[in-house]
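so i finally got all the pieces together for this one. its two components total, 647 residues if u count the protein bits. some of the lines might not be protein, just check the labels. i wanna see the whole assembly predicted at once instead of chain by chain like last time, that was a mess tbh
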Amino acid sequence: MVEKETIVQVKNLVKYFPVKGKGFIRKISSWVHAVDNISFDIYKGETLGLVGESGCGKTTVGKLLLKLLTPTSGEIYIDGVNIFDRVQCNEKKFRSCVQMIFQDAFSSFDKRKNIENIIKEPLLIHKKAKGNNLKEKVIESLHLVGLKPEIAVQFPHVLSSGQKQSVGIARSLCLNPKFVVADEPISSVDISVRAQILNLLKDLQEQLSLTYLFISHDIRVVHYMSTRIAVMYVGKIVEIAESDELFVNRFHPYTEALLSAVPVEDPGKRRDRQIIKGEVPSAVDPHPGCRFSPRCPYALKKCEDENPELIEKTPNHFVACFIDFRGSEDLEK
Amino acid sequence: MREKEISNYSNYKECGKKEESSKQINLYKRILFRFKGNGIALIAFIILIFIMFISFTAPLIAPYDPAKSDIMQRLKPPTLTSPLKGGFPHFLGTDQQGRDVLTRLMYGGRVSMGVAFTVVLISGLIGITIGIISGYYGGWVDLFLMRLVDISSSFPGLLIALTFVMVLGPSQVNLTLALLMVGWMVHARMARSQVLTVRETTMVEACRTIGCSKPRIFVTHIFPNILSPMITIYVLEMAHMIMAEANMSFLGYGIQPPASSWGLMIGDGRQYITNAWWLVVFPGIAIAMTVLCLSIIGNWIKDEFNPIKSDREY
């Protein structure tokens, strides 16, 4: 197998948010373990899908990659540079090389500026273009995402949800980034144009040789978009595998449950769903064992006391689980 | 494809041109357009401009001398006929010393509005600066400044202003200073809360991802977004300050005779209210109209400067 070039390397990343108590002093009473010691690599040109239910820390990972938050501990290397090292990492260079596509594009715009000025701003800051060239660049970016240049004089609130997200994508891509974090890019878009946005992202990836971290809670969308998938559960990555491999073989009971929740189009093919009982445990000061153990149907005594590490079960398929569980499904049947 | 792009580009350029030319077409039309769908605001605006114009040009257009008393003509009711010696009729009557009420109303407006506008201008600047610093830096700075605001606003404003004027002696300057002391807190609170709201939006995060520096985010994104609620507060606070000035003058701790202000006129006319209603009614109407107009305009600004609500075509 050809050695792939790593573009993003996340090492033992931890982010805790303080929970402040009430009262005058507001002492920190506990910590929310939003991201708890996760490590993964993203290879050049691929899309890593990050999937998990709401509140499991997906967006926090995205924000950490963008340096919008500072981690409690751990390192992130992008192109071999530790982004949290002030000496090593050139802020300007970093900003033009890593970009984010926001969940709600509309709220990420300055509502007082028209589209032209919104897309212009990153170009101005990074001095990528000047004068007339600037206008041409704006048009180029709009063209790239399939919008008409006339839209440039409009204000964001008159656009449709799909157009808003397209403008958001245009703004993110006008600096020619290498790595893009797409944080649930379709959740604010009307269902009818979701596929369009997804295909746009895919086309752009090919055209501009982008690398994506695609964050979503919808595993089918992630499957469609990604080359590899990482499954997150309450601050931990429980399984990473090639996208197609994950749909055939999975070793973690949570992934199994997640996949069995995917609706099947053909009513004749309906299978028994594995429904996990209980609620998502709170990320505030969680117990030391496996996070999934309170809800896991196969949980052992060991699961409650010790935290499983990610181990490579089969090539390129990492799982954090003690149990020798093997959920697989013949898609043919 | 390239051709198509170029044609699109020229389209876009024309779009820009159209906008520019429409800017130049007609200033009046554009101003009127701003009031579309809100006729009351337009009327309020016209009345306010009228009152301000009359007040500030009082020395040029007032028919009488505001301080000159004419004991023969005292307490004359409003009339359209001119006094025997000829000249101008006392449209709004005369007061207990025979001074023309209309003239004093004009001069009074000068003082009332002058005080109110100065107070709002300065207290607004102080308040906004403190509020922005407090909201932007947060932490201990915020805690300290906001406790300062809390302490300042926990005293009854009128009492502080009265004490201040009593100690330093009543004059227009001292009155302005006294009202400044009680007026800046509103602006500080408002500015702080606005900065806090805007600071936490995804917009600011997005700005950081495209590489905006902190000062740039503040100047080009946060500040314009907090401006419109601040202007609204400015205008509403003007109305409030006109009332405050009137109260102080009414109580005798504001403007001193022979100068006049609306509040002072009501205070002086109070004793004659049973047989000379015009002494209190006209200044009262002047205050009410100004305050009402300012309130309406304040509300109009609030809607007008909201880019989402104003569903006008640009």
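The interface with chain B takes residues 63, 66, 68, 91-92, 95-96, 98-100, 102-104, 107-112, 114, 121-122, 125-126, 135-136, 139-140, 143, 148-150, 152-153, 155, 157, 171-172, 175 of chain A (CB under 8 Å).
The two ends of chain A are 31 Å apart (CA to CA).
anyway lmk what u think
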